[in-house]
Design brief:
two-stranded antiparallel sheet; alpha+beta; 2 helices; Helix Hairpins; two-stranded antiparallel ribbon; rod-shaped
Length: 130
């Protein structure tokens, strides 16, 4: 159950990281064009606001645990790319671990059934002898 929960968390985190990477790339593309970027963003669950973003050299990334840090666009892109790669690698490990656990559960169930069948067979042989 713990592995499944961690897998779900990673599956939810990966699209968020990709979205952040797209936003940083958009900000870098708009840099120097003189054109402001109008963005709608979520302030709180279900509450949105609109912002006008002019040329910027830095972005703030929410790191969790009530921590937000300011990075240059290049640093933010590198950090997000590294986080995305780590998340995808971790997801692959979780998928492999879950598959291993599924195989082990199947093997255990088959072994239990074989032991039960052997016991039934032994009981029938003992009943015939008496």
């Amino acid at each position: 159950m713990k592995l499944l929960a961690q897998q779900r968390d990673l599956q939810a985190k990966i699209p968020d990281i990709e979205k952040c990477l797209d936003i940083v790339a958009t900000l870098q593309a708009k840099k120097g064009s003189g054109e402001a970027l109008i963005a709608d963003f979520e302030v709180s669950e279900g509450i949105y606001s609109q912002a006008i973003i002019e040329d910027t050299e830095s972005v703030c990334l929410w790191l969790g645990a009530n921590v937000m840090l300011e990075y240059s666009c290049d640093e933010a892109k590198a950090l997000l790319q590294k986080n995305l790669e780590n998340a995808k690698a971790s997801l692959e490990v979780f998928v492999a671990d879950l598959q291993f656990l599924r195989d082990q559960v199947t093997i255990t169930q088959v072994t239990g059934a074989r032991v039960y069948n052997w016991d039934v067979h032994q009981s029938r042989l003992a009943a015939k002898e008496t």
